User: Which sequence fits this backbone?
């Protein structure tokens, strides 16, 4: 301070205008330092508030997702348990009523047999005339025939009850299997959501590290150019936060759209599996085979070559399933995303009830060469694109568009990695500078 005062005194003695200019310069530097400190404080406050809001939003989103999934699971389990309990109670009542009716009928038959035997013994003891004996013998034969017919009816009713009980047991086993598959699908979906949240958290950490590395030190000098750069950086970061928030909202919308589409696909697959289990698609399969035979007759009549190999099977699947996605989902019994050769064989035989060896007309053994015609990429398993790319013209001609699963109305956006997003932001900031 003494040196500054001596310098000011010397400059004032030399030239008062120079002294005033030095004072103005010091005031301008002090104001610039003050504005720089204020800008840095605002930047720190804004970053802290943004991080706190982001953490709060992520926690709230995670809690709401967990509550929603738990509520859905509880509602679904309650509805399924109530439905199963109602079915079991109704079946128990029906079986008990049928058992009581059979017991009453058996008791009545036993009483009638006892009465007839007593009458026969009394008639033998009295020894009536031959005509009366013949009439009683005829009545006894008629009663015996009626008793035999009633016993046969009771046996058939008992066998019907046993078959019905076995069908109920099989239905309960199928329902338990469907519930298990649904729980596995929910578990996989929850894991995918957690992985997506982890990736989002890592990307935010990378952005925060990049911002911290680009932040200027607090004790460095300041100039109007540096203040302008800091203001432009603050504006760019605000815009980047807005874009990140918009992208996050788009990702949430796409996630909800995917969840709705997945739920619709699962419902349609369960409906198709139920119809396959009940044999409701047998008429459709018969019509598809009849159409294939008609095409073969037309080709022979015209003297041209008809369909061969996998194209014949694709025509039948197009008539039954409508779109390649439904055929792939129906054959993927364990929901692994891959259809193995074993699943391909068992699905065609058991689920669809198709004799693919007779349909394709290929030389035996048929399974391996037929599977290779579908496995165009030679991966050893079939995915959805393998069904789509195998004979696409037959799917387009004989399939049914948008049945039974609808296609998304808009294409889903491709997810952008945090590294790519950071590179784009840096390039935009460089262009602005």
Assistant:
């Amino acid at each position: 301070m003494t040196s500054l005062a001596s310098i000011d005194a010397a400059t004032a003695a030399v030239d008062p205008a120079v002294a005033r200019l030095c004072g103005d310069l010091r005031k301008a530097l002090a104001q610039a330092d003050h504005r720089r400190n204020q800008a840095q404080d605002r930047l720190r406050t804004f970053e802290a508030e943004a991080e706190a809001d982001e953490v709060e939003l992520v926690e709230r989103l995670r809690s709401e997702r967990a509550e929603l999934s738990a509520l859905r699971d509880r509602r679904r389990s309650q509805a399924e348990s109530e439905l199963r309990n109602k079915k079991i109670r109704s079946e128990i009542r029906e079986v008990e009523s049928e058992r009581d009716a059979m017991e009453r009928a058996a008791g009545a038959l036993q009483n009638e047999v006892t009465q007839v035997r007593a009458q026969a013994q009394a008639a033998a003891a009295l020894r009536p005339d031959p005509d009366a004996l013949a009439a009683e013998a005829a009545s006894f034969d008629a009663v015996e025939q009626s008793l035999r017919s009633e016993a046969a009816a009771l046996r058939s009713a008992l066998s019907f009850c046993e078959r019905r009980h076995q069908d109920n047991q099989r239905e309960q086993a199928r329902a338990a299997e469907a519930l298990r598959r649904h729980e596995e699908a929910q578990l996989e979906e929850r894991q995918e959501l957690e992985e997506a949240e982890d990736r989002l958290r890592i990307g935010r950490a990378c952005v925060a590290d990049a911002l911290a590395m680009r932040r200027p030190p607090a004790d460095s000098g300041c100039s109007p150019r540096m203040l302008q750069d800091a203001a432009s950086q603050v504006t760019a970061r605000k815009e980047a936060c807005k874009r990140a928030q918009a992208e996050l909202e788009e990702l949430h919308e796409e996630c909800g759209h995917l969840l709705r589409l997945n739920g619709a696909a699962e419902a349609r697959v369960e409906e198709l599996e139920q119809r396959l289990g009940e044999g409701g698609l047998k008429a459709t399969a018969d019509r598809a085979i009849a159409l294939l035979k008609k095409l073969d007759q037309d080709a022979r009549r015209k003297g041209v070559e008809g369909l061969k190999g996998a194209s014949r099977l694709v025509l039948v699947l197009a008539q039954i399933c409508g779109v390649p996605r439904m055929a792939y989902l129906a054959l993927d019994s364990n929901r692994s995303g891959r259809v193995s050769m074993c699943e391909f064989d068992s699905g065609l035989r058991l689920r669809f009830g198709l004799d693919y060896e007779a349909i394709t007309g290929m030389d035996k053994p048929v399974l391996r060469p037929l599977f290779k015609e579908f496995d165009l990429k030679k991966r050893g398993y079939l995915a959805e694109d393998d069904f789509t790319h195998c004979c696409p013209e037959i799917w387009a001609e004989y399939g049914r568009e948008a049945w039974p699963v609808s296609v998304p109305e808009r294409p889903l956006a491709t997810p952008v990695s945090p590294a790519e997003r950071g590179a784009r932001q840096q390039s935009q900031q460089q262009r602005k500078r």
